[in-house]
Amino acid sequence: MNQKQRRSIIEAVKIVLLLAFLAYTLLNRLSLQYLIASLIIPQLVAMILSMILPKATSKKQNLQKKKSTANKISISKSRQLPDKEILKLPLHKISARELERLCYLYYKSKGYKNFETRKGSDGGIDIVYEHPRNGKTAVQIKHYLGSQKQIPVMQIRELNSSKRNYHCVYSEFITTSRFSLPARQERPVSMTFRDITWFEKEIIPWMKKS
């Protein structure tokens, strides 16, 4: 119910009651007290209705509510659609697992030798690829699109340590969000940061061409 509908209902009830009380008072030639009561009672009923009826919401509030509901539609983190379908999806409809696959396909298209690690025993590493010049690089990917969550410095330290499990000298941290200030300040020289800007400038245009 919007504000206009709510106001219309209250006014209609008030007018109907007012006319009914006035008509009853005049037809029965009742005293001045009844006439005053016929003016006051509709106002009281209108006040009660304003408290009972649902509060009106503006168009802007309705739009925000719909947007919030849409954002709450959960996508299983482990869902993995076929590669062709992943490449057609917008980032906000891609699961965490599909984002890892998307990055794997991207590096594969660049001609890099790479492989996806097995979940649960990767030490946070999602992909390992071999760069023609830099050698093996360990990649960790976090899908936080649409949230205010930033990559904390603790995850940077973990990646820098776990890359040794795959004998990698270099590492990359990829996220659809941003890196916190402490994380940026403590970034190792051998680690590359790729945030949502990288997706917008590099991955999304590549997806459209694929």
Report on this model:
This protein has 210 residues and is an alpha/beta fold. The protein has two domains: 3-71, no CATH class; 83-209, Trna Endonuclease, Chain: A, domain 1 (3-Layer(aba) Sandwich). 50% of the residues lie in helices and 15% in strands. The chain contains eight helices and seven strands, in the order H-H-H-H-H-E-E-E-E-H-E-E-H-E-H. It has helices spanning 3-27, 32-52, 59-71, 83-86, 96-109, 153-162, 181-185, 196-209; strands at 113-116, 127-131, 135-142, 150-151, 170-175, 178-179, 191-194. It has a five-stranded mixed sheet with strand order 1-2-3-5-7, sandwiched between helices. It has a two-stranded parallel sheet with strand order 4-6. Strand 2 and strand 3 form a beta hairpin. The mean pLDDT is 82. Its EC number is 3.1.21.-. It is an enzyme of class 3 (hydrolase).
CATH fold group of the largest domain: Trna Endonuclease, Chain: A, domain 1
Across the major sheet, the strand order is: 1-2-3-5-7
The whole-number mean of residue pLDDT values reads 82
Strand content: 5-15%
Low-confidence stretches: none
- Contiguous helical run count: 8
Largest sheet: 5 strands, mixed
Q: Termini separation (Å)?
A: 46 Å
- Work out the radius of gyration: 31 Å
Transmembrane segments: 9-27, 33-53
Keywords: Endonuclease, Hydrolase, Membrane, Nuclease, Transmembrane, Transmembrane helix
EC number: 3.1.21.-
Protein name: Restriction endonuclease
